[in-house]
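ARCHIVE CARD
CATEGORY: sequence design from structure
SOURCE FIELD: tokenized fold
FIELD CONTENT:
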């Protein structure tokens, strides 16, 4: 059976249809690389929808994306389409953090957290990724905390303000645990 995912992804997609593509890839795992490569398709519609399928697949099979982490980091940071960028960051957020962490990626996350050019969903993913990266290198947590505390939340959306507040609570909780251990 010839499975032309480009044709599938060009059609109007619903969550139900994307789930069908995901089920097809689960049935034919050898197609995973084909769909992954379609995230790089010049047609924004195809790349966005391929990223959507990959994000759903990553939730179940993160191991399929582990060797693609560095490539995904670079691609997310330079991607002009907000929806595709959000999905790629979501894939990265589902992957376990490895050492050594990517300092250039962490710096990009720090910059993107409060960038007015980024949509709220991307800003909050940058916050979550920053926190997860800093948890692997705890000496970086104070820097993240300082960035979060020094930002005036009134200029941001409710989603970003809430994510900022929750992130500060998590940092303080983590610091308490570390203090109690020592």
């Amino acid at each position: 059976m010839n499975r032309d995912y480009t044709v599938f992804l060009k059609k109007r997609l619903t969550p139900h249809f994307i789930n069908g593509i995901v089920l097809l890839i689960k049935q034919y795992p050898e197609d995973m690389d084909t769909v992954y490569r379609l995230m790089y398709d010049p047609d924004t519609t195809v790349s966005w929808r391929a990223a959507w399928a990959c994000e759903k697949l990553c939730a179940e099979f993160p191991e399929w994306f582990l060797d693609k982490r560095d490539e995904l980091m670079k691609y997310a940071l330079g991607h002009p389409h907000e929806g595709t960028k959000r999905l790629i960051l979501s894939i990265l957020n589902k992957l376990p953090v490895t050492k050594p962490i990517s300092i250039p990626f962490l710096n990009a996350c720090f910059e993107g957290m409060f960038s007015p050019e980024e949509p709220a969903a991307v800003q909050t993913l940058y916050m979550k990724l920053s926190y997860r990266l800093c948890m692997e290198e705890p000496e970086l947590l104070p820097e993240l905390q300082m960035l979060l505390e020094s930002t005036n939340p009134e200029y941001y959306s409710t989603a970003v303000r809430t994510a900022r507040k929750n992130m500060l609570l998590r940092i303080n909780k983590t610091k308490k645990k570390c203090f109690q251990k020592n």
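CARD ANNOTATION: The CA atoms of residues 25 and 32 lie 6 Å apart. The mean pLDDT is 92.
SHELF: design records, drawer C
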